[in-house]
Structure to design on (313 residues):
């Protein structure tokens, strides 16, 4: 069995969504495609695919194996181009994970510019408000807004952001303005489930300096799984919400939200590009880092952490 051929056929089937579509793409009979995948499964002694009537579904083992196949085949292609002296430009597929609002506001314009500059690179941009496991989910790079604890990752800082507390003028007129974090227990709060941004979770919020950080319990009336949804709810008068300054800025400047308890704000959070530590950074990743870093820093510097000036005490 030619395992490299089997890997290529498996990836074609996964990407195309079916064995028959992979066969048409590769110019192979369906029987040949099915046999090669079955031979891989027999060799590995595991099930890789669940063959449904309409689509293929990867098993847990299959997802891990497919991610490894992509890396192996890309490394082989890179080695061949390098050996032949043909590796003149970065190539391949690059996957980046970023929160939804940060992706739309800052990352997508940079990605679009990067793709024009590097026509041999394809990109997958995953916009989601959760912490992605880069290694498990085959992600090359993530833009995250929190302090990095995992020493197996490399983090390159692109900027700093505030975590601001906001509510609508109508809500504050009806319920009063909280003067101390403890006052939030008598207010309606809009919380963010499984927050990707620390200190904005569903049961407690952080206040104070790094040396005297205080965790304050909150009683939420509304729990959402998107920081944008929390901002929209606050604008609609649903209660007090915490959000990053890059999201709050527009609403505050337009008068739709008012910042609260600024003197109790927790420390600034770093936004960093994060990727796995590795002996040799792939050329496609190095190209994106070199291209994106100065542009992201320029965009974020244009909306600095203090974009919402703290009121004088």
């Amino acid at each position: 069995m030619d395992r490299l051929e089997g890997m290529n056929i498996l990836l074609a089937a996964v990407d195309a969504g079916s064995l028959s579509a992979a066969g048409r793409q590769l110019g192979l009979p369906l029987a040949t495609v099915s046999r090669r995948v079955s031979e891989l499964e027999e060799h590995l002694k595991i099930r890789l695919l669940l063959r449904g009537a309409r689509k293929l579904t990867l098993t847990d083992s299959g997802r891990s194996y497919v991610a490894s196949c992509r890396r192996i085949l890309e490394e082989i292609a890179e080695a061949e181009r390098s050996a032949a002296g043909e590796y003149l430009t970065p190539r391949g597929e690059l996957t980046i994970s970023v929160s939804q609002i940060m992706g739309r506001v800052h990352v997508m314009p940079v990605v679009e510019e990067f793709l024009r500059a590097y026509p041999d690179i394809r990109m997958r941009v995953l916009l989601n408000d959760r912490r992605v496991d880069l290694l498990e989910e085959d992600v090359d790079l993530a833009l995250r807004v929190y302090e990095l604890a995992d020493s197996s990752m490399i983090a390159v800082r692109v900027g700093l952001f505030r975590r601001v507390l906001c509510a609508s003028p109508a809500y504050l007129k009806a319920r009063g303005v909280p003067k101390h974090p403890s006052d939030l227990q008598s207010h309606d709060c809009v919380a963010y489930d499984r927050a990707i941004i620390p200190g904005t979770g569903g049961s407690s919020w952080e206040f104070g300096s790094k040396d005297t950080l205080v965790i304050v319990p909150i009683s939420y009336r509304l729990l959402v799984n998107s920081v944008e949804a929390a901002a929209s709810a606050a604008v609609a008068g649903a209660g007090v919400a915490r959000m990053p300054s890059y999201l709050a800025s527009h609403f505050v400047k337009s008068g739709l939200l008012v910042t609260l308890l600024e003197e109790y704000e927790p420390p600034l959070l770093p936004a960093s590009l994060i990727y796995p530590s590795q002996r040799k950074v792939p050329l496609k990743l190095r190209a994106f880092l070199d291209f994106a870093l100065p542009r992201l820093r320029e965009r974020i510097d244009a909306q600095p952490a203090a974009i919402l000036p703290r009121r004088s005490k």
About this structure: The chain has nine helices and 14 strands. The chain has three domains: 3-83, 92-160+269-301, 163-264.
